Amino acid sequence: MNTSTKPALTDIKTIREQARRNIEEGAVTSGYSANREVVIKQLNDALATEIVCVLRYRRHHFMARGIHAQAIAAEFLVHSNEEQGHADMIAERIVQLGGDPDFSPESLTVRSHAEYIAATNLSDMIKENLIAERIAIDSYRELIQYIGTEDPTTSQMLKGILAVEEKHADELADLLVDLPSKV
Ligand SMILES: [Fe+2]
Ligand SMILES: [Fe+2]
Hints:
The chain is mainly α and 183 residues long. It has one domain: Ferritin. 67% of the residues lie in helices and 0% in strands. It contains six helices and no strands. The chain is elongated and about 70 Å long. The N and C termini lie far apart (61 Å). The relative contact order is 0.14. Bound molecules: fe (ii) ion (FE2) (2 copies). The site of one fe (ii) ion has 7 residues, from α3, α5 and α6.
């Protein structure tokens, strides 16, 4: 095995000295190698995306009508609550990184990757949610690739969220298959 490609380990004395510097930065140490401003900006865009998804799913939960609606409306509520959980995790991570989570309603839809489409019938609701999930999946995958190995905690969080978005998309695709046309 070629060990020369492995990064050198820092000695304890240096680690201790580095930890004492800039202690007001909390979890962000001198070993943090990602571009913090870019990561915070991207996380804020992801936060906006999650909030828009919370609102869209919520609207669809209350607006779902018809005999096929009950189970689907319940699913929309579950998704909405899970998107809220993602928003909370992302906001917490932004603060850990020394940033400000942006909850400003004015710029939400501008910053969000996914759109807020009101939709009025069940099949449009499912389709729009599926499209939004597919947008979220691609955005998260790209951000995970951008971060690489430079911020393992953020990367791990995003991978967890990505797995849930994939589950959401899969469930919506199933709902669409089961749905008779014209509902
Ligand atoms: Fe989400
Ligand atoms: Fe989702």
